[in-house]
Design a protein that fits this description.
The protein is α/β, with parallel strands linked by helices. Helix content is 45%, strand content 15%. It has 13 helices and twelve strands. Strands 2-1-3-4-5-6 form a six-stranded parallel beta sheet, with helices on both faces. It starts with a strand and ends with a helix.
Length: 369
Amino acid sequence: MNISFYAPFKPIDHHHPSGDLVTARGIFDFLEQRGHRMMTASRLRSRWLYWKPWMAPRLAAEIRRSRRRCKRARSALWFTYHTYYKAPDLIGPPVSRRCGLPYVVFQGIYSTKRRRHLRTLTGFYLNRRALTTAAHVFTNKKVDLKNLRRILPEERLTYIAPGLHPRMFVFDGEAREELRQRWHAGQDPVVLSVAMFRPGVKTRGLSRVIRTCARLLDGGRPLRLVIVGDGQEKERLHKQARDLLGERVAFAGKIPRERLYRYYSGADVFVFPGFDESLGMVYLEAQSCGLPVVAIRNAGVPEAVQDGVTGLLAPPDSAAEFEKAVDRLVGDAGLRRQMGASAKVYIRSAHDLDVNYRAMDDILRSLVR
């Protein structure tokens, strides 16, 4: 069938990479592979749009254009990826209504605390209106499922476990040898972190990884730290790492996602706290390649990592417990192998995108029927 696709927060071809883009692109590609004809209905970003009254004429014009696109494409369904208070879907509901299409949302987020503040009050109600008009809402986070149950009946909600293509993230022995030589790792365990160097929680997380590795080295624990990523905090992170770790840190820069499996293969432990991490695709990718994970127990991280089985999760507010978890895995090769093997099995059994999204496809087809 023909599907009109829209991502209010960020178009799927946006130049800034993120976990949201990976998920949106994965859904788009999966539905195409299942035989659907996908059409991007709009590229208008709605982030804080309700605080930009001068954009009202453009929004109205975009609604008209999207309606014409749907009619020309003979769309059978409207699919919105990610609507929440900052970027509510302002186009999908009116276009779906006027074109007589089932309106579907993936990753709808509902948070009642957003109505307590003037800045987010309008976004809260606009987002709520979009969610309550949906014929069906899918979510890949259990906390969101719990919140959505406040406004939607059970039959209009479905939890879809987050996933990836495991075949894209497999262990590569040749890459491991090549990269470990480049990093001068020798027999030292390699700690790997992958994140964009954005201000806020990403940089805060990388800083914790750097400080943790520095303390372990000072305590006599041999290791190497490798960081993959780039961004505006690059200079600050580089300076901090060089000051604390000297030659025992390597920055790999920005690596295309399709080549990340090589870097996961070269490492021994994947470490990134994941402060306020909605999900964290990197945790799924690392585990798929056989890497145990150290992170913190907050937000969506526990949905991606099995604590004590495929990795270790520390309390969010305890740097000491986080350091202890990293030390435990860095110092125990047998535990790393055990958890790494469990991680590969876990990803293929619970987080295979092709398997998990089939239930979504079945529901979409039933809505159109």
